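ERR on first pass: missing label on line 2. Operator R.T. fixed the label and resubmitted. Corrected input:
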Amino acid sequence: MKDPLKKIRPEILKISAYLLKPHPYSIKLNQNENPFDAPDFIKEQLAMKVLQRPWGRYPDFYATGLCQKLATHTGWVPEGITVGNGSNELLQLALHLVLERGKKLLLVTPTFALYRIIGLSNAASILEVSFENFHEFPGRRLLETIERESPEALVFCSPNNPTGTSMDEGMLRQILELTDGLVVLDQAYHEFSEYHGIEAMKIHAHLVITRTFSKAMAAAGLRVGYLMAHPEVIRQVNKVKLPYNVNFVTLAAAEAMLDNFSSFVRPIQELVKERRRLYREMSEIDGIEVFPSQANFLLFRVRDAARVFGALQQKGILIRDVSSTPGLENCLRVTVGLSHENEQFLSVLKESVP
Amino acid sequence: MKDPLKKIRPEILKISAYLLKPHPYSIKLNQNENPFDAPDFIKEQLAMKVLQRPWGRYPDFYATGLCQKLATHTGWVPEGITVGNGSNELLQLALHLVLERGKKLLLVTPTFALYRIIGLSNAASILEVSFENFHEFPGRRLLETIERESPEALVFCSPNNPTGTSMDEGMLRQILELTDGLVVLDQAYHEFSEYHGIEAMKIHAHLVITRTFSKAMAAAGLRVGYLMAHPEVIRQVNKVKLPYNVNFVTLAAAEAMLDNFSSFVRPIQELVKERRRLYREMSEIDGIEVFPSQANFLLFRVRDAARVFGALQQKGILIRDVSSTPGLENCLRVTVGLSHENEQFLSVLKESVP
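pass 2 clean. output:
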């Protein structure tokens, strides 16, 4: 039998698979999911679509309806928008346009692990600038590195997962003026923050913004995201995007959610309020350093992360242990949940830190 | 404003976008869709899932349930299966494992246009061996080319879209013995044919098979496909596959369809019967050469494709004009529809060929 891995590129073989260890839980605060569900009338609308629409026919080729609604929702042009199965799919495509062996991808770390995997799978060199603190992006070192290395692609997650750090508009503009690489701003969590980035895109055609329905819109189960960019960039992304990538159910759900965006506003406000409360209360606990966050999660440092994670897990509260990530020694990440979930989390947390 | 295309790889800029010209129709026979819908009880099951399942939670990380059912369905091992948004997504990932600038992708043409686009977007060189006739794959020239060029990846669509040609097992085994490239067998249409290919995969670990729910299972609207390979290859595909790529609705639909596969058997048989009838009747029309097909479509050549396409379109019957593809001069492709749709197609066809 021939070796099935013989022709597989060596950088792929070297990537370690992303594995998720399943843990039992009663309160799930480990994946930055939104604990509020879509309103029943939206679910009922979608159930009707599932019953009535013939399954055998391909979805819309252009997803025109959804792109139009996204344009109205965001204030960007419809021909500057494309949709995918989560923003990850679109991020992958945007980077694939630019990266290959010998090209450079710049990241500010620690950040969402997928950017690195996408870079590696395209055989790119990864340049990492690490955060100096989690209150702001490391401006000076970032600009120096861009000047010295001229990376072909740059990805910034803002608010950043898992640190919660937001990039401010001034810094984004300085970066855009300095680089001619493709700048991807991943705004998965932007609805929980204040900055939207659309104005910068009007001036800088090499800025690409990705967003998702998984967080603020509480639709992680449906996998839908969108990418906004200069229409010329969208044309290139659409060339490598697979035709009919998003199924009819997801398209219809996303349209229905946008039509009823007002239903999602209060849950978002509630989560922001709970994040502030959690931050305040955690700040007062001895032995915990909690970092400010513009997202629906909080990063915090304890003396013994394994012990705190274990104590929470024993009580059925599942959070994310990120302490093995370089720069995140003894750090844990907790998603903002429903009020009573956050309450229980706080109470077990207080008991578990000595 | 900076040029947003400056860093985009030149081979991407050169790809011409895949566009679909929308035509009005009353009978749609242009996309190899299955005209039978899923049974109502399956649709009702899925509608319940849409209502009851919280949308805000991510889908299964491993799609274990679906892979297990696919293993039972196909006779392959569950750890040798991975699922995606249509088989296209998985085909793209499998080729991405192997291809980059300087690597070769071998195709037998004319075939499904996407393979070439995937190859080009990975900066690979495309080697094309053209069909000598549409009754069989061009065995001798194919083997000679493989020996001379040692391509890193080979894709065969069998039954081939749009020619309907099947690769026989003997030829597939000869190819597998000769090459150590990754061989992808796209079996999107296999349920309408006789050959399943699982046995060859047991002996040849560098054979990868992709399949879809879009054709025989009448679920093109839901976008679900799967890839079968040696578990070591699956491990590599899963490294570059995005986590949570398939949403919960699609996963649940695919499981429900497999649980009730017997409901899909009669429609498949009906389509095969209709294909045979169409082939017979079209063979008897003067001025038409129809090619044998193992799929749910037929390729045929007329004296003036534009004229025949236009005449059908005028009567609201939409088929696919493939006559601009090299090797398919004056050829058209018709999907096998419902009996009365095929009847109308035949009757307009007869009038339109002189």
